[in-house]
Design brief:
mainly alpha, binds fe (ii) ion, single chain, Hypothetical protein af1432
Length: about 160
C-alpha cells in the first residue's frame, strides 16, 4: 500500500523528533527479525499502520504513528543470551514504554497501543482501533521480515 503526499508529510512531521533521538537511533544496532534492525521494523510497522488507518477516519493518526514507532523501543538484542530479558515476549512492551516515557511525551492512547501490541500474548486487548491496527501491522511486517530472511537462505 503506497502512502499519498499528505500521509508522507504527516509521517515526516510526527516521526522527526523520534527518528533523530540519540537513544532511539540505538535501535539500528539491534537485530530484530531476520537481518532487519528494530529501527527499520518500527518504521515499517508505522508506515503500514498509517496506510491501514485510511479506512478508519476516527483514528488519531499522530498517536498511531508515534505508538507504532515506539512499540518495540527496547534496547537489547533478544537473540543474545545475556542481553535477552526473561519472558521477553511478555515484558518488552513494558520496557519499550518505560524507554519511550524517558525520551518523549506519551499519551494514554499511545501507552495502551504499546502495552497491548503483543496481543493475544498479553491476553487483554487494546482499547482502541489504533491498537488493533498496530497489532495487525506488527504481525504482517514480522512475517514479511522472517519469510524474506528464510527466502534468502533458501536461494543461497
Ligand atoms: Fe513487540
Ligand atoms: Fe514489533
Amino acid at each position: 500500500m503506497r502512502l499519498n503526499r499528505s500521509e508522507i508529510d504527516l509521517f515526516n512531521k510526527v516521526s522527526a523528533n523520534i527518528l533523530s533521538n540519540p537513544e532511539y537511533l540505538k535501535l539500528k544496532n539491534f537485530r530484530h527479525h531476520g537481518k532487519i534492525s528494530i529501527y527499520d521494523h518500527c518504521i515499517a510497522v508505522a508506515l503500514n499502520a498509517l496506510a491501514s488507518s485510511r479506512s478508519h477516519p476516527s483514528v488519531n493518526k499522530e498517536s498511531l504513528i508515534k505508538a507504532a514507532l515506539l512499540h518495540d523501543f527496547f534496547l537489547y538484542d533478544w537473540h543474545v543470551i545475556g542481553q535477552r530479558k526473561r519472558l521477553h515476549g511478555f515484558r518488552h512492551p513494558y520496557i519499550a514504554l518505560e524507554n519511550a516515557r524517558k525520551q518523549f511525551e506519551v499519551t494514554p492512547e499511545e501507552e495502551n497501543i504499546i502495552l497491548h501490541h503483543m496481543w493475544p500474548l498479553c491476553i487483554i486487548p487494546p482499547k482502541k482501533i489504533s491498537g488493533w491496527i498496530v497489532i495487525y501491522c506488527d504481525k504482517i511486517v514480522c512475517l514479511q521480515e522472517i519469510f524474506h530472511y528464510y527466502g534468502q537462505i533458501v536461494e543461497i
